[in-house]
């Protein structure tokens, strides 16, 4: 997925492809029903990949090749 034109809808920081290891770890939490998005909603659908904000603090899921770039859909990434 070409990401050089994509930006975070909240901060307008650029987005880049997330490392597969991070996506895998988040998908484990999703299967355990232990992951919420930034709006507090339980994330139930696994991700194919993700787009990580430039500061590394928020990840937007990609499902079926479509990036979910809604403000509340971001997942806070723990340092």
Question: How does this model look, in words?
Answer:
The protein has 79 residues and is of the alpha+beta class. The protein has one domain (15-76). The protein contains 1 helix and 5 strands; from the N terminus they run E-H-E-E-E-E. Strands 1, 2, 3, 4 and 5 form a 5-stranded antiparallel β-sheet that branches.
Largest sheet: 5 strands, antiparallel
Count, helices: 1
Radius of gyration: 11 Å
Strand content: 15-25%
Structural class, by secondary structure, is alpha+beta
Shape: globular
Overall number of structural domains: 1
Q: What is the mean pLDDT?
A: 94
Low-confidence stretches: none
What percent of residues adopt helix (DSSP H or I)?
Answer: 10-25%
Query: What is the element string, with H for helices and E for strands?
Result: EHEEEE
Number of strands: 5
Report the end-to-end length measured between terminal Cα atoms: 25 Å
Describe the protein's topology:
Elements: E1 15-17, H1 20-31, E2 49-53, E3 58-63, E4 66-67, E5 75-76
Antiparallel strand pairs: 1-2, 2-3, 3-4, 3-5
């Amino acid at each position: 997925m070409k990401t050089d034109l994509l930006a975070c809808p909240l901060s307008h920081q650029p987005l880049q492809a997330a490392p597969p290891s991070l996506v895998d770890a988040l998908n484990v939490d999703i299967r355990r029903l232990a992951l919420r998005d930034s709006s507090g909603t339980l994330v139930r659908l696994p991700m194919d990949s993700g787009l990580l904000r430039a500061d590394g603090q928020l990840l937007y899921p990609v499902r079926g090749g479509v990036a979910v770039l809604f403000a509340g859909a971001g997942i806070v990434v723990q340092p």
